Amino acid sequence: MDRKLVIPSLFFAAIAVIFVASAVKPSDKASLKMIMDLLRIPQTLERFKTGNEVEYQSHDLRVLKFSWHNCGSADDPVKVKDVTLTPDPVKLPGEVKTGFTAQLLKTVDKPIKAALVIKKKVLFAWIEVPCVDSVGSCTYTDLCAKIPGKPTDACPPPLSTYNIPCHCPFKAGNYTLPPSNFDLPSIGSLPEWLEEGDYSVQATISSNSTRLACYRAELSLTK
């Protein structure tokens, strides 16, 4: 396609996506369908784009590699650092290797609330993924109740190998998970919007209206 045609086409496509994303209301069934249709649009990972497309991306819209950030404050009692994730981009289905170090300045017990904001890059805009069937940008008021098994059950490896708790309460202390392998499910068992693309995930953890931690990650998924 001629460059003179490509640039206007990309521009108007971007305007259309931004307009639709800002105008629709997820509570309305028709609007929800429109958002989900946007999220299903096949996307080229930002790191693999070349030529004219890249020229029109601002820095804060680009995901060139896995990264994570503290969106809370230095006073939050739960501190996570040294997070690793490979391969990058993450392949579905497949195996990932992830590790972290964390410090809990106090014991964290129920009720634990987790508020997730998940966004997917569609053309030139970030589209927030609605909460559908408890998956997406959802708020979980009782995270402890969603952890499978009983509090007395042993944690599975590799968590048990490194004495990392997996049930409430989470006792104060320092925890380290060296890079360890985890299996990811196939696309068929995942939500339909979770396709190849760039994602932003923000998690805010709190208890009794007191923030414990807030972290945001940018990552890419591929088949």
From TrEMBL:
Q: Name one GO molecular function term.
A: lipid transporter activity
What is an annotated GO biological process for this record, any one? ganglioside catabolic process
Superkingdom classification of source: Eukaryota
Q: Which residues form the MD-2-related lipid-recognition domain?
A: 68-219
Q: Does the keyword Signal apply?
A: yes
Q: Which Gene Ontology terms of cellular component type are present?
A: cytoplasmic side of plasma membrane
Tell me the InterPro entries matching this sequence: GM2-AP, GM2-AP_sf, ML_dom
UniProt cross-references to Pfam families, sorted A to Z:
E1_DerP2_DerF2
What UniProt keywords apply to this chain's record, in alphabetical order?
Answer: Signal
Tell me the PANTHER family matching this sequence. Answer: GANGLIOSIDE GM2 ACTIVATOR (PTHR17357:SF0), GM2 GANGLIOSIDE ACTIVATOR PROTEIN (PTHR17357)
Name of protein: Ganglioside GM2 activator-like
